[in-house]
Automatic annotation (TrEMBL):
Belongs to the 5-formyltetrahydrofolate cyclo-ligase family. It holds the Pfam family 5-FTHF_cyc-lig. One of its GO terms (molecular function) is ATP binding. This is 5-formyltetrahydrofolate cyclo-ligase. The keyword RNA-binding does not apply. Keywords: ATP-binding, Ligase, Magnesium, Metal-binding, Nucleotide-binding. It comes from Thalassovita taeanensis. NCBIfam families: MTHFS_bact (TIGR02727). It comes from the Bacteria. It catalyses: (6S)-5-formyl-5,6,7,8-tetrahydrofolate + ATP = (6R)-5,10-methenyltetrahydrofolate + ADP + phosphate. Its EC number is 6.3.3.2.
C-alpha cells in the first residue's frame, strides 16, 4: 500500500466513525435542506443514490424531485468504469446491485445534469473522500467533458474534515449540503 493509500485509509476510518455517530444521532428532516436546494432546479435530470449503511438518505428529496422531472440512480457497470444512471421513480421495482445498493430492475439510462454524490468525508474546498473505487471521480470527469453538471455532495455536517488526502484525479464537488445547511465551495 502506498503512503497516500494508507493516509486515505486512515482518513476513511476516522470519517466512517464520525458518520456512524451522526447517523445514530439523526432525527428526521435530514433531507429538508437538500429538498429546498433542489427546488431551484425543478425539471433538471437529477441523479440521487440509494443509501447504504450509515449514508445520509436523499430519498425524500428524490421523491419530491421525481414529481417535477426525471430522477435516476447510479448503476455500477464494472471495475474502473464510470457509473451509468438508470431512471428511478418512487415505488419502482428494484434489485440488488453491487456493494449492496438497490438499483432499478429495468435499465433506462439517462444523463443527469445534477448529481447528488454520497461521500465518506468532505472539506470546505469541495474535496471529497469516497469509498476508494473512483467511480464518482471517473463519472464526474466524463459528465463534465460532455457538458455542464452540478456535483452536489450530501453528507452529515460531522463528516467535514479540515483537510483531505487528495489526488489529481479526484473530482471536486461544486456545492456541499448537510442537514445543517448549504456550503458553497
Amino acid at each position: 500500500m502506498s503512503d497516500l493509500a494508507a493516509i486515505k485509509a486512515e482518513a476513511r476510518k476516522a470519517a466512517f466513525a464520525r458518520r456512524k455517530l451522526a447517523h445514530e444521532g439523526a432525527r428526521g428532516g435530514r433531507a429538508g435542506v437538500l429538498s429546498s436546494f433542489l427546488a431551484g432546479y425543478r425539471g433538471a435530470p437529477l441523479a440521487g443514490y440509494m443509501p447504504i449503511r450509515t449514508e445520509i438518505s436523499p430519498l425524500p428529496a428524490m421523491e419530491e424531485a421525481a414529481a417535477h422531472g426525471p430522477v435516476c440512480v447510479p448503476v455500477i457497470q464494472g471495475p474502473d468504469l464510470p457509473l451509468r444512471f438508470s431512471r428511478w421513480e418512487p415505488g419502482c421495482a428494484l434489485k440488488p446491485g453491487p456493494f449492496g445498493a438497490m438499483i432499478p430492475a429495468v435499465d433506462d439510462f439517462i444523463r443527469p445534469e445534477i448529481v447528488i454524490v454520497p461521500l465518506v468525508a468532505f472539506d470546505r474546498h469541495g474535496g471529497r473522500l469516497g469509498y476508494g473505487g473512483g467511480f464518482y471521480d471517473r463519472t464526474l470527469e466524463q459528465l463534465r467533458a460532455q457538458g455542464p453538471v452540478l456535483a452536489v455532495g450530501f453528507a452529515y455536517a460531522a463528516q467535514e474534515a479540515d483537510a483531505l488526502p487528495l489526488e489529481p484525479t479526484d473530482q471536486p464537488l461544486d456545492i456541499i449540503i448537510t442537514e445543517q445547511g448549504v456550503l458553497d465551495v
